[in-house]
Amino acid sequence: MKVSHLGLSGLALIELQIYPDVRGFFVERYQEARFERHGFPHFCQDNHSRSTPGTLRGLHYQVQPPQGKLVGVVRGAIWDVVVDIRSGSPTYGKHVTTELNDRDGRLLWIPAGFAHGFCAIGSEAADVLYKVDATYEPSSEGGLLWSDPELGIQWPISHPIISDKDQRFSGFNSYREHPAFRYVGGQTLWDQ
After folding, report:
1. Domain 2-190: which CATH class?
2. Hey, which residues are catalytic here?
């Protein structure tokens, strides 16, 4: 397992060892002790979403309890986007994009304090599996508008399939007026 830290503090790309042969491949997607040695938290819930080609989900975050995600793809491919929403962070409002797919064994660790979204790319549905370190609390979920020009995210699809809820999220300017997360002394803090 190789862990690379990306351009936003706390965000990490994890590359797993894949063992291919004539039958296909084998990959160990998660082994608790190995992930703990690399400083990842304990996970309490597994989620699975299936998205038809052209579907866009996000940009989501959860404040109470704050939720981090370990994201991977087991079928198809996604364009994954993570936005730093921790006021006071040197990368506040910046984003990172990466492709995750079912062929290369890569996972993305997204700690609390980031908004997350993705779109299904390619010609087949995308199955996304992700572990979370806090249970889902619908009343505490927030989001940013996926198409906010201030964020400047270059999505690889022009007319996505998107939920009504995700279309109603406000832009980053509104979030900036009442940020849910702060970055103080190298730590992420949130409203309690």
Report:
1. mainly beta
2. 60, 130
